[in-house]
Structures are given as C-alpha cells and as structure tokens.
Specification:
With about 450 residues, the chain is an alpha+beta fold. The chain folds into four domains: about 55 residues; about 110 residues, no CATH class; about 180 residues, no CATH class; about 45 residues, no CATH class. It is about 40% helix and about 20% strand. The chain has 13 helices and 15 strands. It has a six-stranded mixed beta barrel. A four-stranded antiparallel β-sheet has the order 12-13-14-15, with no helix packed on it. A hairpin with a 5-residue loop joins strand 13 and strand 14.
Length: about 450
C-alpha cells in the first residue's frame, strides 16, 4: 500500500531499530496491519504507525536488562530534579525561548516612550483619545517631543501572488516609527510589514484595504509594540476621521529628557481642561512603555515570591533532605510561573496599554492554584522518601485493617530499596509518619 510521506518516514525509522534477523518478519506483520488501516485518515494512520517505535525498541533491547535499570533510576532524587529541568526546557521550546518573560525582564523599547490614554469612570477602564484633540494637546505640550496616533483592526491583505487573507493590521501616523527609533518610513502609497515576514519582501507590491501599496520595510524580529502584533502597518489618514471628531484612537508619545510621566500627566490634564470641558470621571494617563511591558511580572511577582519564601521556610523545617526539598519546590514554582506568563494570558495587553480584567483574574488564580498544587506535590513526594538517601520508598505493606483503626493502629509501611529503614504512615483522625532506621543495608 502507498503510505503518506510522514508515515513512510516513521515506519522506516522503526524498521531500522529492529534487529536485522527479525526485520523481515516484523515488516510483514506491520504491513498486514497497515493494509487493514487503509480507510484511516492521515492523522489516524500516523498515530497507528507511532506504535511501531516502542515495538521495535522491545525487540532491540532486552527488557529483562532494561527494567531493573529504570527501577533503580526513577526513584532517585537526581531523576526528580532532572524531570523538572526537562519540563522547563520543554516550556522554553513551546514558548520560543520564553519570549514574554524575556520581554518583561528586559524590554527593548526606548525608556522615554509612553502610551497616552484616558481612564474611564468604570473600574478604571483604559480608553483611547480623540485624535483631533490629541493634535492640539501635543502641539501645546512642553513635556513631549512628539506623539502619534495608531489604531488596530482587521484587513484583507494580498501579498504578491498569494491569495487574499484576513490579517491583523494597523494604521499609524507618519512619525510613529521615528518615535520608536525604527527605520521604517510610512507614506500614502507604502506599507510596513510585521516581524513575521521575511526581509526579502521589501519592494514587493501588496494589496491592503483594496488598494495597492509598496513594501518599504519589514520590522525586525525584536520589535514589539503592545500585544496586537499587526502583520501590516499603513499610514493613518486624518481626513477619514474628520467626520468623527470624537472617535477614539491609541496614542504613543516620547517624553523630553528628564521629564517624569507624572509631570506630563499634569500638563496634559491642564491642557484638556483649558480646551473644553472634560468628561467627569475621566483622566489622562501617561504610562511608560517599559512599565507596561513589566506589568505582568510586577503583578504576579510578589505572590510568587511569597510562595517561594514559604517553600524555603518549610524546607528548613523538614527533618531530612532540606536542600533537595528546597530545590524541588523552587523548580516546580518556576515552572508554574513560566506557564502563567507564557500561556496563562497574564501578558495580554490591550491596544491602550491596559490589561483585560478577565485575563488578569485567570492569571492570578492560575498562579495561586498552580503554586499550591506544586508545593503540595513537593511535600507529599518528600514524605515518601528515605531519610538517609532520599530514594523514593517502595514495597508498601498494609498494617492491620483500616476498619479497625479505632482499636489498633492502622497504616501502610514503606521500605527503602537500599535497606536504610522503613516508614509507617498511620491513618485515622491524626495521621502520622514514623521512620525506623535499619542496621542492615542491602
């Protein structure tokens, strides 16, 4: 039968693992099974062929020699720490090198960049600013070097011979990229592509919003401006917004050297009050872009540090293996924090520099429950380890019957594989653990 390419590659790899003398019979057996799987889809067929790998390994490796090695290796404390490090490495691979965490620790934007927004009367919601009024305020402000508007939206884009597809897009003022220090000019008949595209597209023609434009630049891979990540940047046309003078847009500004954000806030609020009556309950905010990038870490960091400190204190109070318990708990907490920052929605930032209330709540409870479960697992695993070599105890034996715990002590006795001692965990209203060292070692 004719297999798909990925199935043929996987089947060839499995066949290479089978010993040469057993390979013909193994191939005949699997080919007969695959012939029966012809009606399956490509994904189902690939899942079925994936079973050929462990089957081939069983023929290559003598299980009688391998299983004792696994039984000796898995209970060791070094194996537990190595598994946690492998988990963190897998998270690094899935998150493209912890890109959100790296951005929070070391943002690449200029220190004097800030987002302008107005705080709404409802739970401090961050809104955009009227584009017409923003031009008046920034032209009179003495604390700003410049400002630019931007809006995020969805647009149908066609690049070269590719079919049209809907992508995230943005419109920005002509001075937007110069404020950010990025050499990417915007004009009426040109566009700037996002970091997801290749630099070879510079000079190509694209169709955005039903009109043709030329690609003048492709943003570098390290570029970041909030979390919208538009694929295409075009020039903002103020003429199209004159019919809607109160329409809100995002705004980014650059502060003059030595000017604090609070000083710029006071000046802009005075200018807004002088031009016309300002809506009650709303205030203009100036938020540095560096603080916005660090906000997820600063919001979750104190609670995570509290869990880390609690784990260290609990490790010092342990009767054995304090350093191992401390390292195991710390690595588990690091994994929980990285999962929350990379996949828990904690880094989701809106177009005006704020954070979604729902995302913040989910990130908070994910860190809270995840850290609690990590510490519970760490302490529970530590209680079932030898007090001498920290190897996980085995060979459980029940002492008396659980139904008679009111009359006699009932529990489970575990033994160290190396013969260092036994651990009796009693049941009942006050469960306890009793370690009994042995003099004979195996």
């Amino acid at each position: 039968m004719r297999l798909p390419l990925e199935s043929r590659v996987l089947f060839a790899v499995a066949a290479a693992l089978v010993p040469r003398d057993l390979r013909p019979g193994w191939r005949r057996e699997w080919e007969a099974e695959l012939w029966w799987c012809q009606p399956f889809s490509r994904l189902e067929l690939l899942q079925r062929i994936s079973g050929a790998i462990p089957d081939a390994l069983c023929l290559r490796i003598d299980q009688a020699d391998v299983l004792p090695v696994f039984r000796r290796t898995l209970p060791r404390p070094s194996t537990c720490l190595a598994a946690l490090l492998l988990l963190i490495a897998a998270l690094a691979s899935a998150s493209h090198g912890f890109r959100h965490t790296r951005r929070a620790l070391a943002p690449v934007q200029l220190p004097r960049l800030a987002i302008l927004s107005q705080t709404g009367p409802f739970m401090g919601q961050r809104l955009g600013l009227p584009a017409a009024k923003l031009a008046i305020w920034t032209s009179r402000a003495r604390t700003l070097e410049g400002a630019s508007v931007y809006i995020f939206y969805r647009s149908v884009v066609s690049i070269g011979a590719e079919p049209p597809r809907e992508l995230s897009a943005a419109k920005a003022g002509p001075e937007f990229f110069s404020l950010l220090g990025v050499p990417a000019p915007l004009c009426a008949d040109c566009v700037v592509l996002g970091p997801r595209f290749s630099g070879e597209l510079t000079g190509r023609t694209v169709i955005v919003d039903g009109r043709r434009a030329r690609v003048t630049a492709v943003l570098p891979r390290a570029f970041w401006f909030l979390d919208a990540a538009p694929a295409v940047w075009t020039l903002w046309d103020p003429a199209s917004w004159r019919a809607f003078p109160d329409s809100l847009t995002g705004a980014v500004c650059r502060l003059k050297p030595g000017v604090a954000p609070a000083t710029a806030e006071r000046e802009l609020r005075q200018l807004a009050a002088q031009t016309e009556p300002w809506a009650p309950g709303r205030r203009i905010s100036v938020d540095p872009l560096r603080d916005i990038a660090r906000r997820p870490l600063t919001a979750l960091g104190p609670m995570w540090l509290a869990f880390l400190l609690a784990s260290c204190l609990a490790s010092l109070a342990a009767s054995h293996g304090r350093l191992f318990l401390m390292l195991k708990s710390a690595l588990a907490l690091v994994a929980v924090l990285l999962v929350d920052l990379e996949f828990g929605g904690a880094t989701a930032i809106t177009s005006t520099g704020g954070a979604s209330f729902g995302d913040e709540a989910v990130a908070f409870w994910l860190l809270l429950t995840g850290s609690g479960l990590a510490l519970w697992w760490s302490w529970r695993d530590h209680r079932q380890r030898c007090h001498h070599c920290l190897t996980r105890l085995s060979m459980p034996v029940r002492i008396t019957q659980a139904a008679r715990y009111l009359l006699e002590p009932s529990g489970i006795e575990l033994m160290c594989p190396h013969g260092h001692g036994t651990l009796l965990t009693t049941e009942g209203s006050t469960p306890e653990s009793h370690w009994a060292p042995l003099e004979i070692e195996v």
